[in-house]
Amino acid sequence: MAPNRSNDKTALIVHPDMTAVSSLQNTFVKNEITAIVARDLPTALLAITQHFFDVVVVSSRISEEGDGWTLGGVIRLVFPKAFVLMIAPGTDLITLKNAINHGIDEVLEGTASPEQIVSTTLRSPAIAGKRHATPKERIQ
């Protein structure tokens, strides 16, 4: 694997729906962000062992309900400075609790457009600037 140049940004998209994956990939590429896609957990796990990611977009349901949360938590451990965005069916209290427990930076509803999702990631510290090193720094 060739190393990324310092100005190159890479995103991982993990979603079971090929239409959503394709739309997100095209939108990331239009914004000059390389997009790696995975439609299942084994492919996503393989991708995180072979690439460095600045941004990760994960569906909360990949093959069964809730498995995306666990993947998001693993990604947070492997790439602590990456911006991790979860696409969930809703943003109720349980969803937000899951986001906090798994270290997810942002949760958007499944109805969000690819442009909204990519716009959110472009404003993230992983793409736009410095990311806080610790949760304490996030609060201050």
Structural commentary:
- By secondary structure, the chain is α/β, with parallel strands linked by helices.
- The protein has a single domain, classed as Response regulator (Rossmann fold, 3-Layer(aba) Sandwich).
- Helices cover 45% and strands 18% of the residues.
- It has seven helices and five strands; from the N terminus they run βαβαβαβαβααα.
- The chain has helices spanning 18-30, 41-50, 67-78, 93-102, 114-122, 125-128, 135-139, and strands at residues 10-14, 34-38, 55-59, 83-88, 106-109.
- The protein has a five-stranded parallel beta sheet, with helices on both faces.
- α2 (41-50) packs parallel to α3 (67-78).
- The model is unreliable at 1-6 (pLDDT under 50).
- Class per helix and strand makeup: alpha/beta
Poorly predicted segments: 1-6
Number of domains: 1
- Give the number of helices: 7
Order of strands across the widest beta sheet? 2-1-3-4-5
Q: What is the CATH T-level topology?
A: Rossmann fold
Give the name of the CATH architecture: 3-Layer(aba) Sandwich
Order of helices and strands: EHEHEHEHEHHH
CATH superfamily, please?
Response regulator
